[in-house]
Amino acid sequence: MKALVVGGGGREHALAWKLAKSPQVDLIYVAPGNAGTAAEPKLKNIAIKPDDISALLAFALAEGIGLTIVGPEISLILGIVDVFEKAGLRCLGPHRAAARLEGSKSFAKDFLTRQNIPTARYQVFDDPDEAITYIKTQVTPIVVKADGLAAGKGVVIAQTEWEAIEAIHEIQVSGVFGEAGNRVVIEEFLAGEEASFIVITDGEHILPLVSTQDHKARDNGDRGPNTGGMGAYSPAPVITERVYNRIMEEVIVPTVRGMAEEGYPYRGFLYAGLMIDKNGSPKVLEYNCRFGDPEAQPIMMRLRSDLMTLFLATVERRLHEISVEWDPRAAVGVVMVAKGYPGSYAINDPIYGLPVPEREDCKVFHAGTIEKGGQILTAGGRVLCACGLGSSVTQAQAIAYSLVQQITWKEAYYRTDIGYRAITREADRDNN
């Protein structure tokens, strides 16, 4: 079978790399891919952008693609699954109407309210003056979100009233996120520990993946501006068996059931970004309608089962027939970015130390990279994700950072504490 993976980031590299290990797959096209996917066996890059749905469809029809796997949210929100299915092609992901769970934060919040799924209190505003008036009546910290897609950067956790008002000016008045910021969602700040809970569903049956925790803030100690993700690890100790059961019962099952009841059956990856409070109560911070990035990288490191078998069962609506085997080891992924990210940053800087020889316990996934004249160059904000497998998060972190230390380019930047919450827990456990 020939497959098509849509996207060019670290998530897509990880998915295509794992798919290539399936004996069911002969060739995987990646559109547009990156320098990492270009160098993998059984993978071939195709210069088509994820938002060019008509070109992707024409290519898939011409090449007889057996299954298309969609990485980035923009393709889903533009309706790639609807278009491909209408043409008789199999495509893994939610339809356009269901993808509004990520495409519109106000739609998601209203859905959560209708379905009695726990989330933060909120208000939605189209008028910036009304938003500012509301902010002045609230306590801080407070959260300001652009309603539409902003590449993981449209969220401001304002510590003061002034910061919240500045966020309104930036998002709605200055329009830094374009049409995505025409409407804002203002939420109460939730205290606790964040976790990423990702499942795959065929619209009825649900298969949870291993737990992960992302690091959204740019700097150590979860400080600095929000990003698309500076690293992730799996498993996340905050997801205890009790918390896991609550998430499934209070969040995931009601979401899948509620979307079906409201006429938007949801199929594909469903990502719930959660805040877990000190009592183990989960609340939904956000939905993503695709696999998380960088969560996909450590999850794929831990997956032992055939990924194509899982994907085919999902699109054929027989997910209940499938079981998945996971590596019991922990995985840590450290994202290396261009200095200045998530703001402005330089590109086309030569990367030294690549390729890193692949071992069973480590892998470097590419994101914002390009190959020119035999040299790998930076081509984005998030550039690489170095992953390690270990008997503990502490050991996996050490392996991941050993890879990071082999790689450099002008003004490369990365956090040095990915996985710190789990490592603190491990140290406390060992000392008791």
Automatic annotation (TrEMBL):
Reaction(s) catalysed by this chain's protein: 5-phospho-beta-D-ribosylamine + glycine + ATP = N(1)-(5-phospho-beta-D-ribosyl)glycinamide + ADP + phosphate + H(+)
UniProt entry tagged with the keyword Protein biosynthesis: no
Occurrences of domain ATP-grasp (ranges): 109-316
Enzyme class: ligase
Keyword Isomerase: no
The protein's annotated pathway: Purine metabolism; IMP biosynthesis via de novo pathway; N(1)-(5-phospho-D-ribosyl)glycinamide from 5-phospho-alpha-D-ribose 1-diphosphate: step 2/2
Family according to the record: Belongs to the GARS family.
Protein name, UniProt field: Phosphoribosylamine--glycine ligase
Organism: Candidatus Nitrosoglobus terrae
